[in-house]
Amino acid sequence: MTEGYDAQVDAPADRRRVHRIQLLLMLAVFVVLPWLVSPGRTEPDTKIDLTISPWRYLGRSLDAWNNHAGLGELQNQAYGYLFPMGPIFGVCRSLGIPGWATQRVWWTLLLVVSFLGAQQLIRRLGVAGPLPAIAGGAAYALAPRMLTVLPVISIEAWPMALAPWLVVAVLPLTRRSLTRAELIRALALAGVLTAALGGVNATASGIVLALPFVFLLTHPVGRRRLLLWVGTAVLGGLWWLLPLLVLGRYAYPFLDYIETASITTAVTSVPNVFRGADDWIAYILDSADHPVWQGGWVLAQSVTAIIATGVVAAVGCWGLLRLRGHLARWTLCCAVAAVLFMSLGHGGSVGSPLSEPVRALLDGALAPLRNVHKADPVLRLPLVIGLAAVLHHVSSSGKARHRFAPAIIALAVAVAATPIWQGRVGAADAYAAIPTQWTQVAHEIDSAAKTSGGATLLLPNSRTPTYTWGSTTDEPLAALAASPVVTREAAPLGIPGSTRILDVVDQLAATGVSQPSLAAGLARLGIERVVLRRDLAPSVRAQPWQRVQRTLRLSPGFRQQAVYGEGGSTLTVYDITGAADKGAAVYSSEPVTVAGGPEALFAMYAAGVLSEDQWYQLDSRVSGNADVVTDSMPWRAYNDGVPTAYAYSPVLTRGDDEPTRIGAKDLPPATDPSTQPAREWIGWSDVQVSSSAADPFATHYLDVRDGPASAFDGDDGTAWLTGDHAREAWLRGTLRKPTAVSKVTLRLAGPAQHATLPERVHVTVGGHTETVAVRGRTTITVPVRGADVRSITVRLDASGDAIDPVLGIVGMTLAGTRLGSVIDVPQPVDLSSRTLLLTRLPEDGPSITRQVHLAGDGAVAGTVWLRTDGRSISSRCGAAGSITVRSADGSTQRIPLRLKGKAWTVKGALIRATTCGSSSAAAERRSVSRPRATTITVSASHGLTPELASFGKPPIAPSTDRAITSVSGDSGDRVIRVGAGGAGDVVSLSEGFNAGWRATDAAGHRLQSVEVDGWRQGFRLVGSGADTVTLRFTPTTPQRLGLLVGALLALALLLTFLAAALVCRRSGRNDLDELGRRGGSLGRRGGAPGERAGRSLSAEERSGGAVEATSGDLDKLGRRGGSLGRRGGSLGRRGGAPGRRGGAPGRRGGSLGRLAAVVVGFLVAGPLGILPGVVAAATPRRWLRHVAAIALVASCVALAFFGVVDATSAGAIAGQLLATVTLAALARAACGSAGAPDAGSAAPPASPTPTRSAS
């Protein structure tokens, strides 16, 4: 007992004034801090619409359907901005506050709410006095997650900011004696705070509710009121939960095409999770090797930050292991559960043995939880509480060894905020202002849209809107313009078919040559204008704007309308001539059926097999009878995270299951390899390689033509190249049938292919290996012996001094054996009545070769479109090239081609050639009774390249006499008036097909929904007369109803809270945060030093109140503060030494805790993790907190100096094992109250005062 503590307990006016000043000073820091981050510059935070046109954006968010972006899509949680973020930005905008300043206002609110929430929770739990609580609040507000997401996606930090307040709200629910008004007040406040979480990111909002849930669940009194709390929380969150259900029911499945669990869990090792550096985006560098998130990267990679954040987390763990009773149960359960949730998906040599099934769940049924880092607040808040407990303990102990501890801990908290001191919190590419030409273009396209309708396409496409003048989270033109703007977003939120089309548009536009079908195809999409931008940053790897400009100039249908700006920031607006989009179209009842993808539109337009008066329906069934069979939509892997030019793998075999995996799936309808064009090996049954530079997921992607098939295509211009910079590469082929092999000839990739010539080559045939030294040769022949060879393996070894080697094979041949591959089109086609359409793929060589299945007696004759190199072409038969037809029986026929029209000499022009000569006539006489596999090769003469080939008879679909007379309405409500025509005609929007659309005619009949062109929404008309069609996107109604009902309930909860608070105030129970005069936080007589922040604990509250015990339990409680002395229940024989009846576990609890330590160690680190678990289990209780803290600090030191990202590095392995000791210690404490001292007498405690742990 000390007089110093007596002074604290008395809390005189000057002491209260000092504490108040300390709190205000720290508040001032958090108010000022956001304004020091890139002042005057707008950060790429969350939504650009909020800084440009917040009220317009919030107005659109009321609709479930969004026709402003893309080609029509569901709003993706845009309603979540209705509160609180959106109104704040809207009000500031209305007051004339600049966008950058509005961001700082929002950030200030975030930091202040976070700080005060944690500080108040610590005080009201009685964990620490005023100054340690302030430090704890600062540590929470400056947590790594907060600094990581604040300048880039701050809305994800809002649930974290509210998390402490959610717990504060339920504190009264743990009191045994609670008046009805107090109960209603607490429940209503919990509901109001749940409503305030917002629904922009429902996962982040939902996860933080685990904190109050577990708080009540682990309390003997609180769990009785748990269902009441759940009910009010649901009522409060209905305004964002009900629209979320609508989104889940009608949204397109975009989660399969963005980040995968293997990516999100790649960095969630146990030490990274503890220190808060668990967001995978923070570890990403762009193509220019610049951090995508600058502040997060510093926290993830900086040596100083790694060690400092580790020290802060270690101190927090040390404090958690000192807590007792309910507070210990709650914090430890939350901390252990959060670490397990985030780290169980982390694989590697010392990763979780459950990582694969966990990742499968996160990629499947638990996909909304895939970004596991959102659970960080569930860990961070307990750690901050533990840190405050330690600060209080060391600052009030009076021991010499603790003299400098508070300053050291405070210094660690400050240093952990490394991005602040380095001036790298904000993004490096924040912008001062959007160039004026963007606003000018927005006004121009809005004016044009009012006159002629239609949407505007932005080219070239870009996955991220990063410009030379700065980075914006969304395309600025979409935010500036009121009319629809079509962009290819990073996440395919629209119907996948429309995304496929936009990807093809980007590829066609970037060819730099004339594309005759491009303008017509865009007009069919409802696009009437194109904006060409020149100011995309090189790091986004977009297609060169120069090529796009050349394509638009050379292609028919485009007219340059205006140019805005100058130099590298010029924007050019092009009109699409002849386009007269009315927002809808009408077609005849019969479609053209197409085997292929929706992107076949441009090839069909170019080949003349589809007119603007016809619509098509996809039918890729092998047993079907499609009018047009195409080779579009081949079986390929797809990486949506990179630009289209690098996103696709080469065409794969049907046995390759990579495109079935989450993250590598191609966009629908590409889901069934049996109905899609796929590669078939010739001579081989299977070919495997160590890696491929044609893999869109490769470390070193080069080109789609660098896949394994290029080693057998006979083209010296292509090669199989490795994509992982490994020093050893191998190719393994399994022959289709046993073959005698005497030698293997290899042409090796070298400098001519920008590759590394290997030092040695090993060829294994029939179990025997021959090794050959290359010695600078590019062609080697390896003699081998094998009579019945089934497998051949070629291994390449790079020299020891090779840096980042790229190995490969240009060609491989076996004497007497034909090796190669061909792309097989599975649908049968009768050329006498159907059309076969073949198009050039990026991996095709000089010729187009396909294996097709011909039926009937149709001729292999047709038209080929050739690209010129500027040379003059003769019009004689055979001068343009030829078509080679190879039947299954081995017979071959060559059909010559003749140029149609004049001899073009314009480079890049697309010219037409047709079959000619007697070979064509002979081909027409070929007939079969059943489909036969036939290989067709379209070859061109020197100087020409085949682009497209059409065979057979073009489909004939009747047109309609109907016409669209008017279209009115917007977003999810349209009224379309059509003239008279045929019964069953189809009316179509230029927007995505969705089950939510409903249409009725003038008579009230509900119309049949049809998918037009593989992506557009259409409806089949009933009668033949003129009609008025009313279309509604029906999910808008339940969404708005949910928003309205939820808002009313939230308002009702707020009014209920205010009324109950008023009643409590009048009855003398007016302290909203207090647990009651008789059951409040540990204060004047219950424990925590400080001013009159708390009340004394009654016996009732001590036995079942919210705070059963605290950190130390506030050591050295004074004479008047209920110290743990002779009369206050010291740790004597009668003072509550934790025996079996005194609250601490007995042998069963201790055994359970030790078992939990070992099990948790195994769960997060596999078999090697058992050792850290055993260490934690075997450590004496009095040393457990010290071992846990030291292990975590040591793990972060290992990360800092020996590797943090590479899971195979010494730092990552050592760090994982050491941090597992800490986690296992927490698990032991959670299950067995390991933080308590050894059990004493089983005698009942003399008094119900809080227990105290050892120092």
Poorly predicted sequence stretches spanning 5 or more consecutive residues: 1-10, 920-928, 1073-1145, 1234-1255
Number of DSSP E strands: 37
Q: Strand order, biggest sheet? A: 12-11-13-23-30-25-28-27-26-29-24-22-14
Q: Determine the fraction of residues in helical runs and give it as a percent range.
A: 25-40%
Cα-to-Cα separation, first versus last residue: 16 Å
Q: Rounded to an integer, what's the Rg over CA atoms?
A: 35 Å
Mean pLDDT, all residues: 88
- Biggest sheet architecture: 13 strands, mixed
What structural category arises from helix and sheet content? alpha+beta
**What is the molecular shape?**
globular
Number of helices: 35
Description:
InterPro entries: AftD_N, Galactose-bd-like_sf. The protein is an alpha+beta fold and 1255 residues long. Among the domains are: 303 residues, no CATH class; 146 residues, no CATH class; 202 residues, no CATH class; 111 residues, Jelly Rolls (Sandwich), CATH 2.60.120; 67 residues. 35% of the residues lie in helices and 18% in strands. It has 35 helices and 37 strands. A 13-stranded mixed sheet has the order 12-11-13-23-30-25-28-27-26-29-24-22-14, covered by helices on one side. Strands 15, 16, 17, 18, 19, 20 and 21 form a seven-stranded antiparallel sheet that branches. A five-stranded mixed sheet has the order 6-3-7-9-8, sandwiched between helices. A hairpin with a 2-residue loop joins strand 31 and strand 32. Helix 2 packs parallel to helix 7. It starts with a helix and ends in a 23-residue tail after the last helix. The N terminus and C terminus are likely disordered.
